[in-house]
C-alpha cells in the first residue's frame, strides 16, 4: 500500500503503523533551485526523521527541483536534490513540475539513476547505529508546543550533523530498544509515564542524559505537573541554573535549550557564511563547538568514526551491510536562485576506530573519477 501525504513532517509518524510505504510531498525551502543552505539542512532533518519513523520500511520523496529558474540549470538542481535524498537514505522521485511525470532534464536523470543503480545497496540497505548519540523525538511535545519544540529539535540535530557526530533519532516506539550511551531530550516538555519509566531504568552506568529547556514539565496530555519528574530524577532543585554531572548519574541540564539557540543563530548567519565558505569567526560556530565538546567530555563518549569537515557539510555515520559508512552532503557555496554548484569541501579527514585493519571504499558521485582525490585510514 502506498500513501501520498502532504501534511507536515512530524505528523507522519503514526501512519507507518498501517501502511507499507509513504511518499512524502515535502519541502521546507521550495524547489531545489531556490533553496538556501539552511533550507537544505532543514530538509535533511525532515528526511532523517522520516527514516526513523519508517524503520525498515522505504521512504519515497516527492519534491521538485526546478521550474524555469533562469540562473540555475535544471540538471544542477536535480543533482542537488537527488544527492540530499540519497545521503538521507530516501528514494528519489524525479518529476517535471507538478505533473508527476517526465523530467526537467532527461540526460541528468539518466546520470542520477545510473549512480543509484551502481550503488543501490549502499544507499538503501538498512543503516544500523554504531555508537550513536540519541536525539529524542517527542510527538506529544510537537503537538502541544509545535514552534518551540521544532526549533529545539531542528537545532539539536543540526548541531550533531554539523559537528559530524553519529546520531540516531529515537521515538517513543524505539526508546526502550535504544542502546546508545548518550540521549538528548531537546525541550521535550511532554513526557508520559512509560517514557519516564524507561528513562529511570537507563540512567546510570555509562549512560548520559542531555536535558534541555522544560523537558518533563508536562505530562503526555499537555497538563502541567506540580513537580517535574525529570528534575527529581536528576536531582535538579534550581531549574534556572545549569547543572552537570560526569560521575554517578551522568547528565547535563541546560535551562535554556542550546538547540533552539543554535537554530535561531543559524537563521541569522548561516546562509551568508555558507556562501563565502567562512565560519571560524561566526557566532554559531562557537555555540556548535562548545555544545559538542561538553557532550563528549561529560559523557566520555569516543565516536566510532571521527569526521573533520566544515559545518556546511551534513554527515551521517552508520553501519551498512556490516561496514562502517559515512554519508556526506555538501551545501557550501549554494545561493538561492543563483548558484547551484557547490564550492568544493577540501581536506576532509575521516578516521574509523574499528579495532581492526580494513580497506576503505569511496562511492563518489557523478563527478569524473579524475576529479576525485581521496585517501583513507583505519585506526584501532
Description of the molecule:
The protein has helices spanning 37-54, 74-87, 106-118, 120-124, 139-144, 146-162, 193-202, 229-234, 258-276, 283-299, and strands at residues 2-5, 21-24, 59-62, 91-93, 127-128, 133-136, 167-170, 182-185, 208-212, 243-245, 250-254, 305-308, 313-320, 323-330, 349-353, 377-379. It is globular. By secondary structure, it is of the alpha/beta class. Mean pLDDT is 89; it is low at 1-10 and 368-380. It has ten helices and 16 strands.
Instruction: Specify Rg, calculated over alpha carbons.
Output: 21 Å
- Looking across the biggest beta sheet, what order are the strands in? 7-6-8-9-11-10
SS strand fraction: 15-25%
Which sheet architecture does the biggest sheet show? 6 strands, mixed
Keywords:
380 residues, alpha/beta, Rossmann fold, 10 helices, 16 strands, 33% helix, 18% strand, globular
Quick summary:
The chain is an alpha/beta fold and 380 residues long. 33% of the residues lie in helices and 18% in strands.
Topology record:
Blueprint: E1 2-5, E2 21-24, H1 37-54, E3 59-62, H2 74-87, E4 91-93, H3 106-118, H4 120-124, E5 127-128, E6 133-136, H5 139-144, H6 146-162, E7 167-170, E8 182-185, H7 193-202, E9 208-212, H8 229-234, E10 243-245, E11 250-254, H9 258-276, H10 283-299, E12 305-308, E13 313-320, E14 323-330, E15 349-353, E16 377-379
Parallel strand pairs: 1-2, 2-3, 3-4, 6-7, 6-8, 8-9, 9-11, 15-16
Antiparallel strand pairs: 5-13, 10-11, 12-15, 13-14
Amino acid at each position: 500500500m502506498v500513501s501520498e501525504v502532504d501534511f507536515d513532517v512530524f505528523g507522519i509518524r503514526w501512519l507507518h503503523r498501517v501502511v507499507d510505504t509513504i511518499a512524502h510531498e515535502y519541502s521546507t525551502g521550495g524547489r531545489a533551485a531556490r533553496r538556501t543552505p539552511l533550507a537544505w539542512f532543514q530538509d535533511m532533518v525532515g528526511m532523517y526523521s522520516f527514516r526513523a519513523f519508517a524503520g525498515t520500511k522505504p521512504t519515497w520523496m516527492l519534491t521538485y527541483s526546478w521550474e524555469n529558474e533562469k540562473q540555475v540549470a535544471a540538471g544542477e538542481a536535480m543533482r542537488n536534490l537527488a544527492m540530499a535524498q540519497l545521503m538521507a537514505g530516501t528514494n528519489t522521485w524525479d518529476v517535471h513540475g507538478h505533473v508527476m511525470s517526465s523530467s526537467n532534464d532527461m540526460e541528468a536523470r539518466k546520470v542520477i539513476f545510473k549512480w543509484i543503480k551502481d550503488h543501490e545497496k549502499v544507499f538503501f540497505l538498512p543503516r544500523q547505529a554504531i555508537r550513536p548519540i540519541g536525539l529524542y523525538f517527542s510527538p506529544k511535545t510537537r503537538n502541544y508546543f509545535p514552534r518551540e519544540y521544532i526549533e529545539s529539535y531542528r537545532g539539536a540535530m543540526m548541531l550533531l550533523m554539523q559537528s559530524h557526530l553519529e546520531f540516531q533519532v529515537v521515538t517513543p516506539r524505539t526508546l526502550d530498544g535504544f542502546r546508545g550511551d548518550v540521549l538528548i531530550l531537546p525541550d521535550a516538555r511532554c513526557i508520559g509515564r512509560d517514557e519516564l519509566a524507561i528513562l529511570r531504568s537507563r540512567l546510570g552506568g555509562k549512560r548520559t542524559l542531555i536535558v534541555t529547556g522544560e523537558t518533563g514539565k508536562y505530562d503526555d496530555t499537555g497538563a502541567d505537573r506540580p513537580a517535574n519528574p525529570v528534575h527529581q530524577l536528576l536531582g535538579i532543585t534550581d531549574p534556572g541554573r545549569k547543572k552537570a554531572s560526569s560521575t554517578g548519574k551522568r547528565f547535563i541540564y541546560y535551562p535554556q535549550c542550546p538547540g533552539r539557540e543554535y537554530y535561531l543563530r543559524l537563521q541569522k548567519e548561516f546562509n551568508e557564511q555558507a556562501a563565502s565558505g567562512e565560519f571560524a569567526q561566526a557566532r554559531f560556530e562557537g555555540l556548535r563547538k562548545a555544545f559538542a565538546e561538553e557532550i563528549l567530555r561529560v559523557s566520555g563518549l569516543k565516536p566510532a568514526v571521527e569526521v573533520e569537515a566544515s559545518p556546511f557539510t551534513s554527515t551521517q555515520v552508520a553501519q551498512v551491510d556490516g561496514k562502517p559508512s559515512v554519508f556526506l552532503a555538501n551545501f557550501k557555496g549554494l545561493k538561492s536562485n543563483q548558484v547551484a554548484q557547490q564550492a568544493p569541501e577540501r581536506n576532509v579527514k575521516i578516521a574509523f576506530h574499528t579495532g581492526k585493519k580494513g580497506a576503505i571504499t569511496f562511492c563518489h558521485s557523478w563527478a569524473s573519477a579524475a576529479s576525485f582525490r581521496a585517501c583513507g585510514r583505519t585506526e584501532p
